[in-house]
Amino acid sequence: MSEQPGLEQVLTAAKDLSPEIIRIVHALYEQPEISLHENESAALLAGILESNGFAIKRSLAGMETAFVGKTGTGALKIALIAEMDALPELGHACGHNIIAAASTGAALILKKVLPPEAATILIYATPAEELGIGKIELIKAGCFDGVDFAMMVHPSSRRQVIKQFLGLEKIRFTFQGRPAHAAAYPEDGINALDAVIQTFNSINALRQQTRQDVRIHGIITDGGVAPNIIPARASCYFYVRADDLGELQRISKKVSACAEGAALATGCSLEIESDPRIIAPLKIIPAFYRIYSEKLALLGLAEADARPDRNKGSSDIGNLSQVVPTIHPHVPIGDGINIHTNGFAAATVSLKGELAAVEGATALALTAIELAYSPSARAEIVKIFHELEEK
Predict the structure, then answer these.
(1) Greatest C-alpha distance within the chain
(2) Which CA distances in Å does 82 have to 107, 126, 346, 361?
(3) Cα gap 20→343, rounded to integer Å
(4) What does DSSP assign to residue 270?
(5) Rounded to an integer, what distance in angstroms lies between the CA atom of residue 272 and that of residue 253?
(6) Could you read off the pLDDT of 303-313 as tens digits, one per residue?
(7) pLDDT band at 389 (very low <50, low <70, confident <90, very high)
(8) pLDDT per position as a tens digit, 101-135
(9) Under DSSP, is residue 317 helix (H, G, I), strand (E, B) or coil?
(10) Which of 123, 166, 286, 321 could cysteine-pair with 107, CB 3.0–4.6 Å?
């Protein structure tokens, strides 16, 4: 294999490409598109990649905005993940504009400095992360078959290399009762809203007997039409989260039992709808993250002293990590800001946000180069991945 690209080559490429990386950050911010409607975002990214010599395959897994860009001829296949959907009303308050820019930037850097025979670089535009379905659908369709390693970065209030994610199951409960005039003939009614309220009360009691990692939160999606009509139909929607799939399954059954008990107590019928696309926890491979940490040190960037098990959310990147060794480090865009807020969205296009996108692109590119030129590092990562698989 040809000589490994040096740090200065990567830094020069990153500097040359930084205006393009920053342009992506702002372009997606200015035109945020919600899940499965990322048409302009996907067109922008695909156009940039095509103009730089990437072959593009569109409409993956039946999703019009999903695509993969490809360059290189090496047997080793490294995937960069570009999320791009925005939140309703809040725009890029989860920072997917930075994610897309960093992954695209890393792909462009690698196109410039990595010899084609060293690796095949794949960049996946993955829709609908906010719905938790994009990567799951791509996995089901076999789009990641043959990929050896996957990488992305996520913006955050701090530079944190390892952060855990919770598994997530989504459950809807719909109760059917019988309407009646709430004042004149209450004895003739069966109150579906009472069943919803009892479900919440039972789940609130259940929380006292759950592990510290378990999270259960829900909303009422239908509570009736008027106060003087006993609600004949009412429904609620819950997210259930846990550190591992076994506990997630156990708690989800208990949550469903709470709804079943409420239906029995009120005399309602009950329909339970569980989304089969369960979001998996993120599989952590320390040896893989260590490479990324070493590249940060090489760049003179210090990691935050933060526990990886705090402030955990969920993402379909967890599902990808179950089938391909994957890393998901965080890049800093501003102190004391939390995701899914207007302040976070604004921070993505601040100077710190721009620097974070370039940092992510650079660190991901350096990590990919290390993978390409270090068979021992690849072997260690794969060994740990399979050991975790067996547990």
Answers:
(1) 86
(2) 10, 6, 20, 11
(3) 24
(4) E
(5) 11
(6) 999 999 888 99
(7) confident
(8) 999 999 999 999 999 999 999 999 999 999 999 99
(9) helix
(10) 123
Nearest residue to 85 (alpha-carbon basis) of 349, 340, 361, 350: 340
> What pLDDT score does 391 carry?
59
Neighbours of 346 (CB within 10 A): 17
Q: Which H or E element spans position 238?
A: strand 233-242
d(CA 3, CA 5): 6
Residues 6+ apart with CB under 8 A from 293: 161, 303
Contact 25, 357 (CB under 8 A): yes
DSSP string, 166-235: -EEEEEEEEEE-B--BTTT-GGG-B-HHHHHHHHHHHHHHHGGGS-TT-EEEEEEEE--S-TTB--SEEE
Query: Hey, what domains does the chain have and what are their CATH numbers?
Result: 7-164+282-390 (3.40.630.10), 167-274 (3.30.70.360)
Residue 286 CB-half CA count within 13 A: 2
| Contact (Cβ atoms closer than 8 angstroms) between residue 62 and residue 78 | no
Residue 2 has a pLDDT of 83
Each residue of 229-269: pLDDT tens digit?
Answer: 999 999 999 999 999 999 999 999 999 999 999 999 999 99
- Which backbone phi and psi does 137 adopt, to 5 degrees? -65, -40
pLDDT digits (tens, 9 = 90+) for 157-177: 999 999 999 999 999 999 999
Tokens of residue 51, six digits? 């103009």
Q: Where are the alpha helices (DSSP H) in 274-350?
A: 286-298, 317-323, 342-348
pLDDT-based confidence at residue 390 (cuts at 50, 70, 90): low
Residue 15 — φ and ψ, nearest 5°? -65, -45
Backbone angle region of 59, left / alpha / beta, with phi > 0 → left and psi within -120 to 50 → alpha = left
Strand 120-126, strand 67-71: pairing: antiparallel
Alpha-carbon dihedral sign for residues 138, 130, 239, 322:
positive
